[in-house]
Every structure is written in C-alpha cells, then in structure tokens.
Amino acid sequence: MHHHLMGPLIGNMIIIGVAGLITLGCFVTMFWMLLYPGETGSDHPKRAILRDDR
User: Could you tell me the pTM of the whole model?
Assistant: First the structure.
C-alpha cells in the first residue's frame, strides 16, 4: 500500500543522505571546536569559567 504522503524512494534517500551529512558535519565541527578552540587570550571568558578554583 502506498501512503499518500510518501514520496518516491530516491527522493527519500536523498533527503536522508543530506540530513545525515549535515548532522555529521555538525558533530565534526563540535569536536574540532572542543579540541582546538582557537582562543589564546588570557582574558577570554572561558578562562573565568574553567579556572582551577571553581
């Protein structure tokens, strides 16, 4: 039985693939920014949050 809201299989596969690539890209970016944040200034706000006395 074909549901009236279901599109062709190739269209569904393309949408799933694009959404998967976007999700994968977000995870790669997240881990990249966690490991190599790029801020080197001693007055950056993250230094106040990540102090040893907290």
Answer: 0.61
Distance CA 22, CA 15 (A): 11
Tell me the longest C-alpha to C-alpha distance in the chain: 64
pLDDT, tens only, 6-40: 778 888 899 999 999 999 999 999 998 888 877 77
Print the SS3 string covering the chain.
Answer: CCCCCCCCHHHHHHHHHHHHHHHHHHHHHHHHHHHCCCCCCCCCHHHHHCCCCC
Distance CA 3, CA 37 (A): 47
